[in-house]
Structure formats: C-alpha cells, structure tokens
Design brief:
alpha/beta; 2-enoyl-CoA Hydratase, Chain A, domain 1; eight-stranded mixed beta sheet; 20 helices; 36% helix; binds hexanoyl-coenzyme A
C-alpha cells in the first residue's frame, strides 16, 4: 500500500521523517518494507474510526555498505509514533526475522511511548520487543538511534541493545518526562537537561555516540557497521585485503612507518605527568581507523574499534590524560561492557595499560567500586578471543591484574622499557613500609634511600619479565609489528577448557 508521508509535519519539528532516515541509512533503493498493511485492533477512545498507516512504524530489510540489515523506524507524525500491540509485534517479529537471517537490527526510535488508548495491549507490545532484544543479544548486533522522544518503558528496548546513538537537541530518553518529574518531585527541568543527548553521553553513560545532526548520526551508524561482524560467526571484518608475512618487516598497510618512530617520544619525561593514550593508539593502528565509542563518558578509560592491517580489533585503554587513568566505577563499567561485546562477536582485544590503580576512598567505595571493578576482572577472564596487552607505563596493584594481565588470560603481554609493574607507587609503598621512621625527621636520608631502592627494584618491567608475566620488553616503536604478529599467531585460537555451565554470574 502506498502512503502519503507527512514530511512537513515532521520537518516542522526540525526532524527528518522516518522514511528519510531509512533512505539515508540504507544503500540506494535497497530497502524492502514488510508488514506495511498491519493495523491496530483497538476500539476504545475513538480508535475504531482511526486508521494508522503501518501502525506508526516502518519495518523492513535493506543493505548498508552492501550487507543486509533489518531496520525499523517509528513515524512520529502517525499518532506520535506511539507503540500499540501491533506496532510492538511488528518490531518484535522483525528482530526475530533478523536473528534467522543473521543480520544486524537498527532501530530508529521516535515515539511518545505506550499508545495510551491501547492500555495493557501496548505494554505487552514492549514485553515482546524486550524478549526478542534479549534473544538477539550476542547473535546479531542491535543498534538504537534515538531520533526523538523515547519515554517511559520505551527506553528499555534501546537500553537492551548494543549501541545507542543520540543527536543534539533531538534525542530525549527518560523513564518519566519533565511533567511527571514536576508532579512527583516538584522540580522544573527541561527534556534536554533530564535526558538529552549530552546527559546520556557524558553523565549516565547510556549513550555511546552523540552527533550534531541526524545525517551525521546515520553516517556514523553506517561507519560502525563497517567495523563490526554482522552476526556471531561472521568473519568478514577480519579478512585483511592484503596479507603480510609473519614477523615481516613491512607493516605499512594504510600506515606510515614514521608513526612507529614517534611512539618513542610519546611518554612524558616525568612518570607523574599525564598524556592522552590516543596518541599511542593512533600510532599503532591503521591510519585514521580508531573509531572511539562512549568517548565523553568516563574519559579515564578509552574504548573503541580500530583496524590493524584492515582487520577489526577491539581497543581498551587507560587514559593517563584524564584522572591519571585511574579506574573508577564508571570506567570499570565502560571497559567491561566493551570487552564483553568484543568477546561475544569474536573481535580480538588489544589493551593498553597505564593505570595507577583503583580509586581509593569512601565516594567510590559507596558507589560499589568492588562490584564495578569486578566486572572488568570477570569480562577479561571470561573472554576467549585473542588478547594482546601493551603496558606503556604504570601497572599497579589490582588494576595491573584487571587490565588484561597474563594472569587473567592475556595471550601476549608486552611492556615498554619505562613500565612500572608493582603493588603501588614508591611514595605510597614507603609511607606504609616506613611509617614509623617517617615520623622522625632525622630519618629523611634513610627514607629517601629506601625510596630509591624501591624505584630501582619495582619501577621497572624487569621482575615481571623474569617471572615470565610479560612476553617481552619492547621498544615503543616495535609495538605495531609485535601486535600484528601476535594477532596473526592467534588467528585460530580456540579455548576448550570451559567447565560445563548454563551461564556465569557477572557482578551486575
Ligand atoms: C497515544 C500519543 C502518545 C501516546 C503522543 N501521542 N504520545 N498518542 N499515546 N503515548 C499523540 C498526541 O496525542 C498527538 O496526537 C501526537 O501524538 C503528537 O504528540 P504531541 O504531544 O502533540 O507532540 P509533542 O508536543 O512533540 O510532545 C511529544 C511528547 C508528548 C513529549 C512525547 O506527546 C508526550 O509527553 N507523550 C506521552 C509520553 C508518555 O508519557 N508516554 C507513556 C510512557 S509510559 P495528535 O492527534 O494531536 O496529532 C510507557 C510505558 C511502557 O511507555 C512500559 C513498557 C514496559
């Protein structure tokens, strides 16, 4: 059936129409709509006289960069894109079909939430979507674009998906809108401040990407789809366009050799000084290939995808340029979630470590740093993909273990010569070991000597190397070649010592 799309009504709100969004997302003329004639069965509140085109949501399959995808787009011009039973059924069935067809699902959300006239039938529509979201998890990537309001229980379908994209001044996500907040909490707040793109990208960590316009947002979705496998078992993103010999000296696949040399001078002279870990990442992976995720949330950790010789790897790093790279609750959640995503789709993990530890003190303890930090341990220990770790500088205490150490199952661990692998930094250690002596100013000389001894003994990668906790101490400029060789060696890695179980119990 052909419909007259109400483009003007949507444009008046400063937004693209559902069909325009689909056309931007999918390769030209590739979209094939299904369930277009589906209609609501509601008779209350005058609904028996109302026809709702495609019941407010366009569903179908298309192609992105030549590969198939499932897409649904809620049309806000049709009864506010509200979700009734049939609308929900269409989305749930699309996800179920996508599981069978082994292709990612992209949801373009723009809806006033549960269709009020349909009552509990609308709620059941959500329930069916949630169930399919969970069935699909780990089978096919699920991507949500928040292209308008997303209120009430509606936020939980995006919340169950793998990646959430937001757009400035357009995205709204909240459990209850500003009006309810006013009624219940007597608080005036705008939609933007309650659940706008910036809030969810910077503070709540719910959103993975924030874009200035819808067009840029959809372009970014297309880019992400170029990095990730399109279903569990999809090997295509790992096929290098050109193969290089193992341990070969030529490592110039979309990569300038000069960058390797620059790695030698990335670290600041003083080990207490911060630097942006992206300066390292960008000099190791293929040129311009680092595609960061959750960039604005928990900046003390950096995660994303990159290509090495054309193959996708998942990147995880501490960032000494932000809070010294220390691990807190938010950074732990960010890292653990990314590690689990990569492991679910067999994306090899590349970890860069420069971490002074977990944040001490009551604030983070009360937030549950034990529970959150444990997520990193769990995620890395569980991950059976190839895991390569590079310790650029600090690797202290529990954080050394947590950041994909050999002990948690890293396949290769490389340390730069300035690596400091120890229980803690020199000042902290001397403060504990020589607490009594420190009280007496006459012991200043002794304490200084002990500090030097501690630094000489522990502030190096030597002991870890002697115990074979690290695979090799390497010059920074060797990093890319080592990583490349390691991943090539691990290409057919398989882990067969998993004890029989239903599923584990990650600390949530
Ligand atoms: C039915 C709805 C609707 C809804 C909007 N419309 N939301 N119809 N059910 N939930 C209709 C409006 O009546 C209007 O119809 C048209 O869509 C456009 O809506 P407006 O209000 O004019 O648009 P706008 O001013 O832009 O405001 C957008 C909005 C507001 C902020 C989203 O519509 C709103 O607050 N809607 C209710 C949000 C909400 O609380 N939803 C329920 C959440 S609870 P006409 O005919 O005039 O064009 C929930 C439970 C799920 O979702 C639980 C799952 C577990």
């Amino acid at each position: 059936m052909a419909f007259d799309y109400n483009l003007e009504k949507q444009h008046a709100k400063g937004k693209l129409h559902a069909i325009e969004r689909i056309n931007l997302l999918c390769d030209k003329d590739s979209f094939m709509e299904i369930y277009a004639d589906a209609q609501h069965q509601c008779t209350s509140f005058g609904m028996d006289k109302k026809t709702i085109p495609y019941d407010g949501v366009i569903t179908g399959f298309g192609k992105v960069n030549g590969k198939k995808v499932a897409v649904y787009a809620q049309d806000f011009t049709v009864q506010g894109g509200s979700l009734g039973k049939v609308h929900g059924q269409k989305i749930a069935e699309l996800i179920a079909k996508a599981i069978e067809c082994r292709c990612p699902v992209i949801g373009l959300n723009d809806s006033g939430g549960a269709r009020i006239q349909e009552g509990v039938d609308a709620l059941c529509g959500y329930g069916e979507i949630f169930r399919q979201n969970v069935r699909a998890s780990g089978v096919i990537p699920q991507i949500s674009v928040i292209a308008g309001p997303c209120a009430g229980g509606a936020v939980y379908s995006p919340g169950l998906t793998d990646f959430i994209f937001t757009v400035d001044k357009i995205s709204e996500m909240y459990i209850t809108g500003p009006k309810v907040v006013k009624q219940v909490m007597f608080m005036d707040i705008t939609s933007e401040d309650l659940g706008g793109a910036a809030i969810h990208s910077q503070k709540s960590g719910v959103a993975h990407y924030r874009c200035p316009t819808e067009a840029e947002c959809i372009e970014k979705v297309r880019k992400l789809l170029d990095y990730i496998p399109h279903y569990y078992g999809d090997k295509t993103p790992f096929e290098p366009k050109e193969k290089k010999a193992l341990f070969g000296k030529k490592v110039d696949f979309k990569y300038t050799e000069k960058k390797s040399a620059e790695l030698n001078s990335v670290l600041p002279e003083a080990s207490t000084k911060g630097y942006d870990i992206r300066e390292v990442i960008n000099r190791v992976v293929d040129d311009d290939s680092f595609f960061e995720s959750t960039e604005e949330f928990a900046g003390n950790a950096v995660v994303g995808f990159a290509k090495i010789e054309g193959k996708t790897v998942g990147v995880v790093a501490n960032n000494p340029g932000n809070l010294g790279g220390i691990l807190n609750c938010d950074a732990s959640d960010k890292i653990a979630r990314h590690v689990r995503y990569c492991d679910a789709y067999d994306i090899p993990l590349l970890t860069f470590v420069d971490v002074p530890g977990f944040v001490p003190g009551p604030q983070e303890e009360q937030k549950g740093i034990i529970r959150h930090g444990a997520k990193i341990l769990y995620a890395y220990a569980e991950a059976s993909v190839p895991k390569v770790t590079v310790i650029t500088r600090k690797a202290y205490g529990g954080a050394y273990i947590a950041m994909c150490s050999k002990h948690l199952g890293a396949d290769f661990v490389y340390a730069w010569p300035k690596a400091e692998i120890a229980v803690m930094g020199a000042e902290g250690a001397i403060g504990i070991l020589y607490a009594k002596e420190l009280k007496d100013p006459n012991n200043a000389q002794l304490v200084q000597e002990k500090g030097q001894e501690y630094r000489a003994t522990f502030m190096t990668p030597t002991i870890a190397a002697q115990r074979d906790y690290i695979s090799a101490v390497i010059e920074p400029q060797e990093t890319r070649a080592r990583i490349l060789s390691s991943f090539e060696l691990l290409e057919n890695k398989s882990v067969s010592d998993k004890p029989l179980k239903k599923h584990g119990n990650i600390p949530l």
